[in-house]
Amino acid sequence: MEKTNIKKSLVAESEQIQLAIQMIKLGARLQLLESQTNLSRERLIKLYKELKGVSPPKGMLPFSTDWFLTWQPNIHSSIFLNIYDYLVKYAGVKDITAIIKAYSLYLQQIGHDSDAEPVLSMTRAWTLVRFVDSKMLKMHGCSCCGGKFVVNAYDLNQGYYCNLCHIPSRAGKTKKAKELAYKLVSIAA
Ligand SMILES: [Zn+2]
Asked: What's the confidence (pLDDT) of residue 33?
């Protein structure tokens, strides 16, 4: 009896370590690792240093919903959330597993190369899901292109035009933005 318990706890621990490794590789912050695994802070820091060669950055997680509603972050957040919703609905995954899978697919969709910092970090993606779960943000269909975008749940979103159909002149209609727009609409459709 004693022996099976030890065995079980070793398997559980190695699963927790695998989960932490996946998240660290995707750029998760320490606070996120602590909230999603039951590994001690010391072990997580050690693991982080081993994988990244540096100590995890200090500082609090981003808190405001505003960031997700600004122009470029909104497009990236919407791409991620469309993928996440799809996986939860059709792939039978949930919680942190769904976030990890959706985030990996998001990186693929935007053609991310590992040298650059992606617009939407793993930690922000996780925060976004929490904001949606707590009904502060939600998805809403654009009246023009039909794509689904992240919007403030407290706003009246009737006749909503997304950030791609209604591009502020400052942002400019770049080729990259157009490519992303096309991807987003095709994911949402
Ligand atoms: Zn639109």
From this structure: 95
Rounded to the nearest angstrom, the distance between the alpha carbon of 184 and the centre of ligand 1 is 10
Cα of 163 vs centre of ligand 1, distance in Å, is 7
Shortest CA distance to 80 belongs to which of 128, 24, 19? Answer: 128
Q: Are residues 112 and 178 in the same domain?
A: yes
Work out the angle at residue 127's Cα, subtended by the Cα atoms of residues 147 and 146, and round it to the nearest 5 degrees. 5
Tell me which residue range forms the domain holding 27. Answer: 2-52
> Do 28 and 123 form a contact (C-beta atoms < 8 A)?
yes
Mark whether 41 and 10 lie in a shared domain.
Answer: yes
Q: Which CATH number goes with the domain that contains 133?
A: 1.10.10
Whole-number pLDDT of residue 183: 67
Distance 133 CA to ligand 1 centre (A): 24
Position 157 pLDDT exceeds 90 = no
The C-alpha atoms of residue 2 and residue 9 are separated, in whole angstroms, by 11
Distance between CA 27 and CA 182 in Å, rounded? 27
**Ligand 1: distance of its center to the CA of 164 in Å?**
5
As to burial, measured by CB atoms within 10 angstroms (0-12 exposed, 13-18 middle, 19+ buried), residue 160 is middle
| Interval between CA 48 and ligand 1 midpoint (Å) | 40
Statement: residue 118 has pLDDT above 70:
yes
18 CB burial (10 A radius; 0-12, 13-18, 19+): exposed
